[in-house]
Design a protein that fits this description.
Elements: E1 5-18, H1 27-34, E2 43-56, H2 67-82, E3 85-86, H3 101-118, E4 122-129, E5 135-138
Parallel strand pairs: 1-3
Antiparallel strand pairs: 1-2, 2-4, 4-5
Helix pairs in contact: 2-3
Bound molecules: nickel (II) ion.
Length: 141
């Protein structure tokens, strides 16, 4: 007997405030490097998060993963912690990181990897859309 593997993606949304800046740089230098995202008085984005897991299609269910369980994990480990928060100051998994979308993707991967493993699945990709035109993908490592 052989198994078919497939990728399943769950989308979740959250809103969060941030500021990308280096405190050792002055406001002008920060603005040059980070643009509007360095605004000293914060600003927010409506983020879209796409979590992709990989696994065998179970013959009994036809599913790779129970999408409700996956959604619950994403809510508990990510959304409940970041939605309507300031990720620079209030979100434990972003502590000490520059609040870029790249760093956010890595931090969310680190939050979700073990809970997804406990479901018997492999995390494949974290994709975050910060704006209509900009998104980041992280595949681990
Ligand atoms: Ni921004």
């Amino acid at each position: 007997m052989f198994f078919m593997e497939a990728f399943v993606t769950r989308r979740e949304r959250f809103s969060a405030a941030h500021r990308i800046f280096r405190k050792e740089w002055d406001t002008e230098t920060n603005k040059e490097m980070f643009g509007l995202c360095s605004n000293p008085n914060w600003h927010g984005h409506n983020y879209e998060l796409f979590v992709t897991v990989k696994g065998e299609i179970k013959p009994e269910t036809g599913f790779v993963v129970n999408i409700k369980q996956l959604s619950k994990i994403i809510r508990e480990y990510v959304i409940d912690k970041i939605d309507h928060k300031n990720m620079n100051t209030e979100v434990d998994f972003m502590e000490g990181r520059l609040a870029s979308t790249e760093n956010l993707a890595v931090a969310i991967w680190n939050e979700l990897e073990q809970p997804v493993n406990r479901l018997g699945k492999k995390l494949h990709c974290i994709k975050i859309k910060e704006t209509e035109n900009n998104f980041v993908e992280y595949y681990g490592q």
